[in-house]
Design goal:
GO biological process, one term: DNA-templated transcription
Helix content: 40-55%
Protein name: Transcriptional regulator GcvA
Number of strands: 12
Strand order of the largest sheet: 4-3-5-12-6
Largest sheet: 5 strands, mixed
Pfam families: HTH_1, LysR_substrate
InterPro entries: LysR-type_TF_proteobact-type, LysR_HTH_N, LysR_subst-bd, WH-like_DNA-bd_sf, WH_DNA-bd_sf
Organism: Methylobacterium currus
CATH topology of the largest domain: D-Maltodextrin-Binding Protein, domain 2
CATH superfamily of the largest domain: Periplasmic binding protein-like II
Shape: elongated
Distance between the termini: 70 Å
Length: 300
């Protein structure tokens, strides 16, 4: 029996606009113009002979009929995407992963060879970005960010936790010993522009709030701060998950057992319905296995 189906592009435009609550955001996600999304939605409304959006100047609101329609077609499009990834040779060959740059450099990239060895048929395309999940025009298959946070239509899974505490090179500690937090006044403290209060919070927790170090150096990116610590320039606030290998191999040391500042966990974010697609499911199982037991240092 012949199915009465509206044009697929019109369905995609409506689903994106309805999910994001904006024709502009839908256009950015789909890689088309605002006018194209508007035209596709109007065409779908004509096809359905029903109004889907209430238009109010620069924002749109779903009609009751549109909300019910979205609840049906959203999962249907997810199942189509999942089936395509599972059974389509070309579509399933590449897994797109979006991760923060420091995390990718310090943790994910050194481990990707193990994923490749286990799943040689899956090609990972790693993209780095520090943008929030909701700001990504095209999030790909798996997004790695802090959390867990809640996003409509997205499943979050924690795979790695961490804490933060001071770290430095063994050579630096040999030149200028650190017996107690107050001794930091003889050292250079390394700051990251993206996390400017880490040292203030740790010093306050250590009972030496307001301590003035010998020098301070601020770098744009967190991975530069860690590299400066490795090079013996000063002390950085090290995230335990990202420095575990350096500590195990003696490139970095922790002069104090604590206090340890809490940090957000690392999570994977995947569109609902996509978790069961073979490449995505394989990656999630692998990264959760890699993260198990990491991110926590033995208590001193």
């Amino acid at each position: 029996m012949r199915r009465a189906l509206p044009p697929l592009n019109a369905l995609r435009a409506f689903e994106a606009a309805a999910r994001l609550g904006s024709f502009k955001a839908a256009a950015e996600e789909l890689g088309v113009t605002h006018g194209a999304v508007s035209q596709q939605v109007r065409g779908l409304e004509d096809w359905l002979r029903a109004s889907l959006f209430e238009r109010h100047n620069r924002r749109v609101m779903l009609t009751p009929a549109a909300r019910a329609y979205l609840a049906e077609i959203g999962p249907a499009l997810d199942r189509i995407a999942a089936a395509t990834a599972l059974y389509g040779h070309e579509a399933g060959a590449v897994l797109r992963v979006n991760a923060p740059s420091t995390f990718a450099l310090r943790w994910l990239v050194p481990r990707l060879a193990r994923f490749r060895d286990r799943h040689p048929a899956i090609r990972v395309r790693l993209e780095t970005s520090n943008q929030p999940l909701e700001a990504l025009a095209d999030p790909g298959d798996v997004v790695i960010r802090g959390g867990p946070d809640i996003f409509y239509g997205t499943t979050a899974r924690v795979f790695l936790s961490e804490q933060r505490l001071p770290v430095c090179s063994p050579g630096l500690l040999g030149r200028v010993p650190l017996r107690e937090p107050a001794d930091l006044r003889h050292h250079t403290l390394l700051h990251s522009a993206s996390l400017p209060r880490l040292w203030d919070d740790w010093l306050a927790a250590s009972g030496v709030a307001g301590l003035e170090p010998e020098a301070a150096l601020t770098l744009d990116h967190f991975y530069l701060t860690l590299q400066a610590a490795l090079d013996g320039i000063g002390l950085a606030m090290g995230p335990t998950a990202l420095i575990a290998d350096d500590l195990a191999q003696g490139r970095l040391v922790t002069p104090f057992a604590g206090p340890r500042l809490p940090a957000r966990s690392y999570c994977t974010y995947v569109r609902e319905g996509r978790e069961s697609a073979e490449p995505v499911a394989a990656f999630l199982a692998w990264i959760e296995g890699e993260g198990a037991g990491e991110g926590r240092l033995p208590q001193g």
